[in-house]
């Protein structure tokens, strides 16, 4: 397998915090873990990045885009990020809400009049949709999404359901219902959801290879292919387009460079794009998600869990961690960041392996063990070319690599 790696450090000069040597060790340990786990499980390919202080302090790739081994994964290779897409939707909606385009308490039927809400469901608000508190049975009609049923037909079936709790009072994770944020965005922005996300998030952040939808994924020749296990071996399969029907819930494609820039912005280093108020809004704990406490690997570390707006908020030991995972056929993705420590991690895999949870939790356990309550960094630190949150991902030179088409 091919390993492509940079370990880049920002100077840290607070003796009570994680100093440069600790950060370097953290990144190097993760790099070794990533390589070891992918090799042990024979995962075809993956990518990771660690960000801190407005910069990428470590980035790496391993393996190939498919089992032929003909095309190595590189930092510009796009992956499906599945439900990590929800964080983009929640943040985009929060940007528009902060501009006064709508209010979180507005009823969803105001923007989707044909949605067959009845009884208590007529009270479902925009905030309930993005905050996973509609009250509908969890994963309502996911089976219809997977069967390729059209979204209008799926929405027509919601009239058959009755909320299991009052909207806004309990956690009920959704995919098709979450996608009701799209008509809200389109109504107030006047453009289609993918275009709005590109104009307001991707382009200003310099996420040059990020896209939305099946056609955009297929048009990029530098794309990771999905893999599922069959008889103990990973098998390259065709991408299933079904969940692309709900772009806000599962339709984003992105490279590890794109996702690095995204986490840098989420950590507050691009306030001209994502204001502190927007970040606080989407990462504020809203409804409790007790079942998440029992997730494999995570259950050894988290004592409480909530959902915000497109993001999960975990109590990881004594520390708050903002997180979301993604899983569609053949892909896994994890993105997490600690606002208090200005530290973030993203992992992308082109295989349905739960090794991603093992890697994520191991990283954060080590990080929080070495961190105090605040990271202090020097934004002018030496140490080689760094990928900064400037909107232009040209800080890392990739020998011999051509831009993705």
Can you give a write-up of this model?
With 405 residues, the protein is α+β, with helices and mostly antiparallel strands. It has 12 helices and 14 strands. It has helices at 20-41, 85-98, 126-130, 142-146, 151-157, 181-189, 193-205, 214-219, 247-250, 256-269, 276-282, 355-370; strands spanning 3-7, 45-52, 55-63, 79-80, 211-212, 227-230, 233-236, 252-254, 287-288, 302-307, 312-316, 319-328, 331-338, 343-349. The strands form 3 sheets. Strands 1-3-2-14-13-12-11-10-9 form a 9-stranded antiparallel sheet, with helices on both faces. The chain has a 3-stranded antiparallel sheet with strand order 4-8-5. Helix 2 packs across helix 6 and helix 2 crosses helix 11. The longest helix is centred in the first third of the chain and has 22 residues, at 20-41. The protein is globular and about 55 Å long. The two termini are 24 Å apart. Residues 1-17 and 372-405 have low confidence and may be disordered.
Label this structure with key terms.
405 residues; alpha+beta; 9-stranded antiparallel β-sheet; 12 helices; 14 strands; globular
Briefly say what this structure is.
The chain has 405 residues and is α+β, with helices and mostly antiparallel strands.
């Amino acid at each position: 397998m091919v390993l492509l790696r940079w370990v880049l450090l920002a100077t840290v000069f607070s003796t009570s915090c994680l100093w440069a040597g600790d950060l370097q060790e953290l990144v190097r340990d993760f790099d070794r873990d990533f390589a070891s786990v992918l090799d042990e499980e024979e995962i075809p390919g993956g990518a990771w990045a660690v960000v801190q202080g407005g910069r990428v302090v470590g980035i790496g790739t391993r393996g190939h885009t498919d089992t032929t081994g003909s095309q190595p994964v590189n930092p510009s290779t796009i992956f499906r990020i599945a439900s990590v897409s929800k964080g983009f939707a929640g943040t985009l909606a929060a940007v528009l809400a902060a501009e006064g385009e709508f209010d979180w308490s507005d009823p969803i039927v105001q923007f989707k009049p044909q949605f067959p809400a009845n009884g208590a469901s007529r009270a479902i608000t925009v905030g309930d949709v993005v905050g996973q508190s509609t009250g509908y049975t969890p994963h309502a009609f996911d089976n219809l999404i997977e069967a390729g049923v059209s979204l209008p037909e799926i929405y027509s079936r919601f009239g058959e359901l009755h909320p299991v709790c009052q909207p806004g009072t309990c956690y009920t994770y959704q995919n098709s219902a979450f996608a009701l944020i799209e008509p809200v965005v389109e109504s107030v922005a006047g453009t289609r959801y993918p275009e709005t996300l590109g104009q307001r998030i991707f382009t200003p952040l310099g996420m040059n290879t990020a896209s939305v939808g099946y056609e955009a994924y297929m048009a990029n020749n530098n794309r990771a292919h999905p893999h599922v296990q069959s008889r103990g071996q990973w098998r390259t399969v065709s991408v299933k387009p079904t969940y692309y029907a709900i772009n806000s819930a599962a339709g984003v494609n992105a490279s590890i460079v794109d996702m690095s820039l995204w986490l840098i912005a989420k950590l507050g280093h691009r306030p001209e794009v994502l204001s502190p108020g927007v970040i606080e809004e989407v990462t504020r704990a809203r409804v409790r998600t007790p079942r998440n406490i029992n997730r494999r690997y995570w259950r050894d570390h988290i004592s409480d869990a909530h959902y915000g707006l497109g993001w999960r908020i975990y109590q990881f030991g004594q520390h708050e961690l903002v997180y979301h995972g993604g899983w569609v056929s053949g892909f896994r993705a994890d993105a997490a960041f600690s606002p208090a420590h200005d530290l973030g991690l993203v992992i992308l895999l082109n295989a349905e392996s739960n090794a991603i949870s093992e890697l994520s939790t191991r990283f954060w356990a080590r990080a929080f063990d070495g961190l105090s309550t605040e990271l202090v960094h020097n934004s002018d630190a030496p140490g080689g070319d760094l990928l900064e949150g400037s909107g232009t991902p040209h800080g890392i030179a990739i020998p011999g690599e051509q831009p993705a088409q």
